[in-house]
Amino acid sequence: MMRLHPLVCAHRGRSGVAPENTMAAFEAAIAIGADFLELDVRRTADGEIVCIHDATVDRTTDGSGLVAEMTLAQVRALDAGSWKGAAFAGQRIPLLREVLETIAPRMVVDIEIKDRGIAPQVVDLIREANALRRVTIVSFDAGDLRAAKDVEPALACGLITSGPADDAPEAIRELIASALAAGANFISCAHPKLTATLVCECRLAGLAIMAWTMDEPADLRRMIDLRVDALVSNHPERALELLEGRA
After folding, report:
1. 62 SS3 class
2. Shortest CA distance to 148 belongs to which of 159, 162, 161, 163?
3. Helices (H), 1-131
């Protein structure tokens, strides 16, 4: 059955049912037919890029401490799955390199940069994996996007935002100007602040618009009605079901 636009993004993988930012969550996103997945990256003390959202390992592993103060060996020794359920015991924090080699050939990967200053290294890893056309880079920090574009102008990048200050044209145009100045190809906006005006202005500026992060059907429906380009959800299966129901 044909499915309607927009694209569906699995937030931190299919994190509603599997431990976020693990291979299990990424494989689960592929299994249900999400269009792409989002993950987060940070750098370890010995310079390796790993997939984890928080600055510490405390919430999503059986360990404790700052990722930036731990070696790769220390990070990889942790159980990153048991907190989500016994079935996921033994899941590890993945290297970005692993994801680019094993997941990116099968699904587009949206990489959110969490640590400042690591964008050029992330781009190098993307190039090494020959994954330039299979990834996008996003960040709340425009400097990350500029750094990535300086290294690889062809890389698709997006500015993440909690939204404009208000729905006034001036606030929206200021946000769009910031995205364009950073070389962004799209804006990723928190769904409560996403409006028809913002969608329209992004279209006029040549920017795609992505909405994050919705799990409730009412929120997903509102974004679909606004005709955003992509929906980000911890439960991408819900968005897929809604879109299939409208086809």
Report:
1. coil
2. 159
3. 23-32, 72-76, 96-102, 119-128
Q: Helix, strand or coil for residue 209?
A: strand
Strand, coil or helix: 19: coil
Strand pairing category for 7-11 and 36-43: parallel
Q: What token pair was written down for 18?
A: 């599997």
| CB 97, CB 121: distance < 8 Å | no
pTM for the complete prediction? 0.96
Give the residue numbers marked as catalytic: 11, 53
**Cis peptide bond N-terminal to 217, omega within 30:** no
Q: Taking a C-beta distance cutoff of 8 angstroms, is the pair 164, 135 a contact?
A: no
Query: What does the pLDDT look like over 162-214, one tens digit per residue?
Result: 999 888 889 999 999 999 999 999 999 999 999 999 999 999 999 999 999 99
